[in-house]
Amino acid sequence: MLxxxxxxxxxxxxxxxxxxxxDRKEEFYxxxxxxxxxxxxxxxxxxxNEQLPDKLGPTIDKIKSALPGQSPxxxxxxxxCGNPDFMSELKAIGRGQVILAGMETHVCVYQTALDxxxxxxAVYIAADAVSSRSxxxxxxxxxAMRDAGVKITSVEMALFAVLRVAEGNxxxxxxKIVK
Length: 179
What we know:
Layout: E1 7-12, H1 16-20, H2 25-41, E2 46-51, H3 53-56, H4 61-64, E3 73-75, H5 84-93, E4 97-103, H6 105-118, E5 122-131, H7 135-148, E6 151-153, H8 155-163, H9 168-178
Parallel strand pairs: 1-2, 1-4, 2-3, 4-5, 5-6
């Protein structure tokens, strides 16, 4: 199960025009914002990634505004793990559980998840905080990742698994975020 001291959130490539083409995009955006806000409440580090922003455009404003004071790591590869800066930051954070949110589920999220597994991490996909242009590609990717050993979760399931107790300020803050 996810643990606050072991988890890191990785946000993958929610950028430019492509982001506007995602299946159920508004629900997807809201869930990414929820998991970012929840990670902040739970003091889970966040690594934000962009792929070739000079070509694909920057992270959309709705997501960028949830990440104040942070800058994205820029990558050329589909997998975040192909970026030495990402791997260095992940190693410096020193946590073995990675929660993935972003797009596209069947390309960048999928390849990152499998590379993280190969690197020895426990990988969790927040299924309601990932998207592809088609629901079918997302479904196929989630099935393939599950078959490879990735754990499929949701924003609420992940956040409350980390929290563990239904009391206190963090609990009240998470309730505001998920409702």
